[in-house]
Fold:
Amino acid sequence: MSDITLAASANAFEQIFTNIVQNFTYSKSDTASFGPFSASYAIALHLQDGTLTLNNDNTIDVSDLEIVFDTLTVDVCFTLPGWCVGGFCVVPDPWNGCLVPFPGFCIGAFSICPTIDLSGLVSEVTEFDAGLRVNYYVDPARLPGWSDLDAELHGHPNKWQIFINPTLVDINPIDVPATVANILENAVKNAIDSAIPSWVPGWAVDLLWDIIGPILNLIVDLLGIVGDIADWLESLLDDSFNILSFIETAITDYFAGQYPIYEFEDPYPVLEATPTLIPVKIPIRDLTATVDSQEMVVLANVGA
Structure:
């Protein structure tokens, strides 16, 4: 029989879990080249909601846990090829050649980097399976020659820690809206409009757009997109940049090693220090933590 038994009900355990969820944040950015274009992204996110279930087989299930992208931006950089509207006669002169000539104009090749802002998107953690992990923490700031009392007085005691230890975390792909095609289309159109010399008459601008053709077709050709633009961007984020894997790892590491659901000092203080007496502390050994459908149970022994 163990010397020490502690228990936390399923309701208390769920409140602890809620506090852990509310303290999770993650951010990351990266840049890469993909042949005809380069891209960079920046994300910042937090978790919300989530329902925790304790099972009789000493496992924990989490459902309805959502990922909120407070920031999700993608910059796609590529080069527009440039176009020319050739010179010609607007009003011909049957006797002297041309009454009103048009000299023509060109737009040279130039690069653009439109930003696609998808901030506010919400994704879901579709699977979250876990157990409990017990960890004995020795503060790295504790000096080798310190006693347990020295460590406590300097604020660096050893600790027993209990973590939720995920064994599987799986996230839904980022659901990129179809409107991303309109964002890219408008960005390219505005860039070309800005590059047209101000003296060019409207009818000549119309000729240029006729030469360029549909903007979306131009984007697809320049970026080498096969299929739908929204699907392409989703694949860029999920597969090429591997964002989902980074987030899954961040969630796993956070729960398993950064935010204990419970921790206490070892040796454990039984009586606080007084002006005339040092604190009374007992060493804790053989600590285990398990769950069933009703509660979490922590067992330990008093050591020498």
The chain has a mean pLDDT of 89. The helical segments are 10-22, 148-153, 180-195, 202-212, 215-223, 229-240, 243-258. The chain has one domain: 4-302.
